[in-house]
Please model this.
Amino acid sequence: MTFTPLLQSFVMHFGEMGSRWGFNRTVGQMYALLVISDEPLSANDIAETLSISRGNVSMGLKELQSWRLVQQHHKPGDRKDYFMALGSVWDMAQRVLEERRKREIDPTLSLLRTILLESPANEQEAYAQSRLNEVHDLLENVTHWSQELQHLSPEKLETLMKLGAGVGKVLDMKDKLLPSKRN
Model:
């Protein structure tokens, strides 16, 4: 692979974005390199291209495997392990969202459930629990919604995303045509 300035720019930026998605900059750069590579890359290829240590690559590949974002390949007659990004860009997005849910939202929901089962000791705790219940309900709804989205095909997801604010307009029209019982 020829690592042109254009490709390097993407890989470096993706590394910065990776740190916002839950893994470090170097792991993000490694993943970006694998995403844009049309051939599986060895750990040595990755280390050389990104000018990082072989040990850092090894740890990064383990992390990417734990996220289920890369797949290991073998070439006949070659003892090295090769790696490539697993699945489509939609698969990547779903895996990142799923892993973020497991690592961040699920533990938060578990803590919130525990707190909400306790009887408040005073008015301050009662108020705090009412607010925490709102957070709990929001996270439950977001989790349910994201799980429903994961069952949609990439084509349906793309159509849904293209609808964008149009969905809000449809809901506004529904409210005008069918006033809720609250009004």
